[in-house]
Amino acid sequence: MPLQIYKRGRVYWAKGWIEYNGRPIAGPYRRSTKASTEEGARDWINHETERQIRRYVVGDELSKTFSDAIMLYNASPKAARQLIPIVEAIGDLSLSAISGALLKSLGPKLKPKASTDTWWREIVTPASAVINNAHELEGTPLIRVKPYDKFERIAQDKRRGKLSRVERTPADKEWIEAFCHAADPYNAALVRFMFETAARIDQAVSLEPDDLRPHENKVRVKAGAEGASGKLDHRLASDDGRASRTASQTAQEPQDRQADESPCFRLWQLHRLQHAVEDDLQTRGHSVPVSPPRWATRFFH
């Protein structure tokens, strides 16, 4: 059956086979065209049909290299920094020649003192994203990489003389108070805020003055892992200063909503942090904050 389009949700999909002279040469297809209009879906079918017929008649064209795939990838600044040494190592290789084992072997060469978890996060993951993005756009080979197993992780830990995945001991109130007493007022305020609200570091340093609602004892933080999965969390500071969850309800917005469009709200006793900062400043003899970290300049001028 030749390729036919059908609507599935808001986009059109294609199913069937690509035929040449009455013979099926590629398929079966059951794939999204990513087009919201029938015309766009038919354009996708025409492009895919031409590509498969050309491949059937003249054979595979010269495969794109990893450097070519980089040009198709919209990398974030962080991903771009991670990809620079990878391109230097395998940029001239064709995508068809790059295997999962090859990507995993880059870890010892590029980061010999890092753990296998770091290799996976900073080498295998961004390189795989580039290759699979080219697959989506140009039909180049797809890649799937088997994760490092525990034996590889243990062997690398022995080589570098350091354990990975060390179990962390959560801080208690006494540790927080000792840290705040020894730290500068800005980091003390940051740690106290994270401890009492269970906010993550990126949520805490992303706060803007408009996010604070002191009259309501509320602060607005961008959605984290739970907020991004479709839940709104409300947390209330208890008498001893720890944040405890008091309510959790399912949001009505789609689960793939952007974090900055649907921030979650957490209750927080803002006066505790304000008084703690003032006390620390007075104890240290500072009437005006000095040398604030970059994140603190949004609140202290």
Quickly describe the structure.
By secondary structure, this protein is an alpha+beta fold. Helices cover about 45% and strands about 20% of the residues.
Structure report:
By secondary structure, the protein is an alpha+beta fold. The chain has three domains: 4-58, no CATH class; 66-160, no CATH class; 173-298, no CATH class. The chain contains eleven helices and eight strands. The strands form three sheets. A three-stranded antiparallel β-sheet has the order 1-2-3, covered by helices on one side. The longest helix is centred in the middle third of the chain and has 23 residues, at 116-138.
Provide tags for this entry.
301 residues, alpha+beta, 3-stranded antiparallel β-sheet, 11 helices, 18% strand
Which shape, going by the Cα principal axes? extended
Q: Could you give a short account of the major beta sheet?
A: 3 strands, antiparallel
Order of helices and strands: EEEHHHHHHHHHEEHEEEH
Class per helix and strand makeup? alpha+beta
Helix content: 40-55%
Instruction: Give the mean pLDDT.
Output: 76
Query: Counting H and I runs of at least 4 residues, what is the number of helices?
Result: 11
Question: What would you report as the Rg, rounded to the nearest angstrom?
Answer: 27 Å
Spatial arrangement of strands, main beta sheet: 1-2-3
- The number of domains: 3
Q: How many beta-strand segments?
A: 8
Q: In percent, how much strand structure appears in the residues?
A: 15-25%
What gap, in angstroms, lies between the N and C termini? Answer: 69 Å
Low-pLDDT residue intervals, each spanning 5 or more residues: 225-271
